[in-house]
Structure formats: C-alpha cells, structure tokens
Design brief:
Helix content: 25-40%
Number of helices: 7
Order of helices and strands: EHEEEHEHHEEEHEHEH
Largest sheet: 7 strands, mixed
Length: 230
C-alpha cells in the first residue's frame, strides 16, 4: 500500500458550503502530500488560479465532472493498430512524464515547478503514477495521475508521436478493469471536446461524490501497489 503522508494541517470547506454553480471550492493551503491525498479523497484537485492580479492555489470540484467509464472508451480500429506499435510501462519515467505534460511550449500550461515537485513527492510515496507509451526505447507519450483506493484521478497527458497518449489512456483503462472495475472511478476533471471523442462523459458533482465515497474503500489496482519488500 502507499506510504501514509503526514496529516495536513489544513481544513477544507464542508461540502454543504460549496457553491453549486462554481467549480472553485477553496483557495490556499499547500501541495504537501498529506494535503493532496486528503483533497483527492474529498473530490478536490489543485490548479493555479488568478484572483485579481495575484496567482493563488485553487481547489476545484467541477459542477459537471469529467469521468471516463471503464466500459465506455471509444477505441477506433486505427488506435487498436497503433497500440501494437508501443510498449507500455508503468512508473519508469514519472518525472519525465510530468515534465513533458508541463512543457512551456504547451498552450494554457499550468504545471509549474511547484506542481512537478509536489507530484514527484507523491509518486515516491506510492500515490501518484505514470502510464507510459514507449517506442524504440524512446518515451513517446504518457499520462500521470493520483491513485487513491479505487480512484484514479488523471492529471495530464502528452504525446510526441501520434496516438501515444491515447494508447497510454487505453492501457490505463485496461489495467483498471479488474475484479473491482464496476466500482472504480477514472476521473479526468473536465470533459473537453477531445476527451469527449474518447468517451468521457459528464457527471453531476453530487453523483461523482457519491461514487467516490464507495470507490475509496477499494484497493488500488495491482500495478499501482507498492511492493512492501522493495
């Protein structure tokens, strides 16, 4: 199992106080492992937010959450063919995946040095993971996210070769489809047109939070479990 982090000193607002029309729930706190694990368990995730002229740490719970049903990913024939061209690896290049997702060349990038360091710490404790698509010994694409019980909260993905990020997502879906698949949740934050084309749907906040409570009681999928002997 992942290594339990030090408890967070911060308290998040109770759900009863969340604005039903605003994705932003809270501002402040920090990116320490205990804070992050607590937040994901409450249905929150962090992103920078600009308020006035200053940037702050925001905590979001979308009113309409983007979720990829494990039996609902749309896989074209061409994607199936592409998948045969890549080797899938788990957690062999986590820092490289996060760095690529946070490349300054990407439009609307938000993964700054603080976030890279924070998720690196979370990874080393066994809570954050990468799914990577490799070809000819080269990292061609991948994704990373946070695994808490039966939740996998996808943070970002990238590719430098066509279909590589989609192949990584397909691999993630396959590894989550174990004996607990019916109760696992693959959260992608928001539904974008690109993600919708892959099968991502919108779930009302209350529905998402209800499913979250159930899935947190599950064990993580086998590839994300920390080896107690290693």
């Amino acid at each position: 199992m992942p290594i339990a982090p030090a408890p967070t000193p911060w308290g998040f607002p109770p759900r009863s106080s969340w604005d039903p029309e605003d994705d932003l729930v809270a501002v402040g706190a920090d990116l320490e492992p205990g804070t992050l694990v607590t937040a994901y368990g409450l249905g929150l995730f962090p992103m920078p937010v600009t308020l006035g002229a200053e940037e702050h740490l925001g905590w979001f719970s979308p009113v309409e959450r983007g979720v990829l049903p494990l039996d609902g990913m749309r896989v074209s024939r061409s994607l199936r063919r592409s998948a045969r061209d890549f080797e899938i690896r788990i957690d062999t290049a986590f820092d490289e995946v996060v760095a690529a997702c946070g490349s300054p060349d990407r439009p609307d990038g938000w993964i700054n040095a603080d976030f890279r360091q924070a998720y690196g710490r979370l990874h080393r404790l066994g809570w954050a993971h990468s799914v990577e698509a490799w070809r000819d010994g080269r990292l061609a694409g991948g994704l990373y996210g946070v695994s808490v019980g039966g939740l996998f909260a996808g943070e970002s993905m990238f590719h430098v070769e066509r279909d590589a990020s989609k192949v990584a997502l397909l691999a993630l879906v396959d590894l989550l489809r174990d004996q607990h698949a019916d109760c696992r949740v693959l959260d992608v934050q928001w539904q974008t047109p690109h993600l919708a084309s892959l099968g991502v749907v919108r779930r009302p906040r209350a529905e998402y939070l209800e499913s979250l409570e159930a899935c947190l009681r599950l064990p993580p999928p086998a590839p994300f479990r920390v080896d107690d002997e290693g």
